[in-house]
Amino acid sequence: MTAPRLIAPLAAHQIDTARLGEYLAHHVEGFDATLRVRQFQGGQSNPTYLLESDTRKAVLRKKPPGILLPSAHQIDREFRIQKALAGSGVPVAAMLHYCAEESVIGTAFYVMDYLEGRVFTDVLMGELLPAERKAVQAALFEAIGRLHAVDYEALGLGDFGRPSKYVERQLTRWRAQYEAAKTEGLPAMDRLMDWLGRNIPAADENAIAHGDFRLGNMMVHPRAPVITAVLDWELATLGHPLADLAYCCSPFHLPAGSGPAMTGYGGVDLAAHGLASEDEVLDLYCRVTGRGEIKDWRFFLAFSLFRSAAIVEGVYARALAGNAADERGIAMHEMTKITSECGWRIVCDGN
User: Fold this and answer.
1) Is the separation of the CB atoms in 166 and 239 below 8 Å?
2) What averages of pLDDT result for each successive group of 10 residues across the chain (351 residues)?
3) Which CATH number applies to 5-113?
4) Where are the alpha helices (DSSP H) in the chain?
5) What is the dotted CATH code of the domain comprising 135-349?
6) What is the pTM of this model?
7) Distances (CA, A) of 279 to 19, 242, 260, 298
């Protein structure tokens, strides 16, 4: 477990506290000239800050500085999806304010309610008792099931993404972003991208897809094994729910202690740790969503690992350029290798 780590804002992510405090005093109740700002460490994309005044706390997320990859860091979409999901049964933080005016702190940003809680960056959750681990893991898959079961049209999100060919478009997008960011040739990644392009499932589905649904993006109650908020909605869109689910199941296919952003269950006795198997969590997901079966699972697992590899290579590229949101971004290239190799192994093991 990590309590969210707070530091003075990184040099590349400094903001004008006085200007921000003046702005918030007119738009968010409880803030004034006593504003204090610290930066959270742990996210790799949109810089996130704790805002404190003498009377309240809140969290601010903004775009990073510098030249950004196409279609990335759409803060307005993060704000919109979380605001729409309030009261839906999907746990989200309360949205307080969105600011599109870049003159305030240099980029668009939004402010949301601050929640006390725990974030588990290691899927083994070593600090917990087995029964607590089991409860948190079950809450994770119940939450993703509830998200995929949401009637997004009824929430006014019918235009939040395109209604078809999500996987095909994602393959095109992340391949292009990987090619733009890559620092060396990786044979496993090349083979994986080629196989995925030739094996896209014919059946299509649509739901709200979070895009980064994993334990490390869950806020867990300070004392109870309950998820109080799903965090980091930057990649959310309308898309194939099994792509989202496969990403959430990535730990079942990754080695333990495999990197700063992703960890796995490789070599771990899950039952001894109180954790369910992949088959068991898939059964839970099907019960929550009312789904009868899960088709093309090998494809979606391989796809999720390809996409993860492309994303972390982008983080590594930003770290080399000096504008990643987390100082650990420089270690991400190893994760590109590990995830692409795991993805290709899933493809090969299925032949």
Assistant:
1) yes
2) 73 88 94 90 78 94 69 83 97 97 92 95 93 98 98 96 90 92 89 96 94 94 97 93 96 78 84 97 98 96 95 81 61 85 92 57
3) 3.30.200.20
4) 17-27, 75-85, 130-149, 166-181, 187-198, 241-248, 278-289, 297-321, 332-349
5) 3.90.1200.10
6) 0.89
7) 52, 14, 26, 13
